[in-house]
Design goal:
The chain has two helices and no strands. With about 130 residues, the chain is mainly α. It has one domain. The model has no long low-confidence stretch (mean pLDDT about 90).
Length: about 130
């Protein structure tokens, strides 16, 4: 672009100084060739940008699918965590009930043993009556 302006200014300034039509045509041809080269470079750069854009779109789609898959896995993990908590609670309740039952059995057995001890302490207790 600068070159074209310089050439145009030079041509205008030199127009009165005897610049031939041949020289102007040469400058014009050079400028057109330069424009074509720049247009080709820009088209090539645009093609590269388009390819990169397509690549970015594919990556974005892949990331989106992975995020969706991760969300499904998160939901499944949350569901499993709830199931595990529920199973743990059931196990805790069962363990408490079992311990309470054992405690009752032990208390009953202790009461029986105390009664037996008291009976044995009495004169003529269980062994003396035979």
């Amino acid at each position: 672009m600068k070159r074209w302006m310089v050439a145009a200014i030079a041509a205008v300034a030199a127009g009165c100084a005897g610049v031939s039509k041949q020289e102007l045509e040469t400058v014009r041809a050079e400028l057109l060739a330069h424009d074509e080269r720049k247009a080709a470079e820009l088209k090539q750069e645009l093609t590269g940008v388009k390819e990169e854009y397509v690549l970015v779109q594919k990556l974005e789609q892949r990331v989106q699918r992975q995020l969706e898959e991760m969300d499904k896995l998160r939901q499944r993990l949350e569901q499993l965590a709830q199931e595990i908590r529920a199973a743990g609670e059931v196990a805790r309740v069962n363990a408490v009930r079992s311990l309470e039952f054992e405690e009752k059995l032990m208390a009953d057995r202790l009461a029986q043993l105390r009664a037996l001890i008291e009976e044995l302490k009495k004169p003529g207790g269980a062994s003396g009556q035979k």
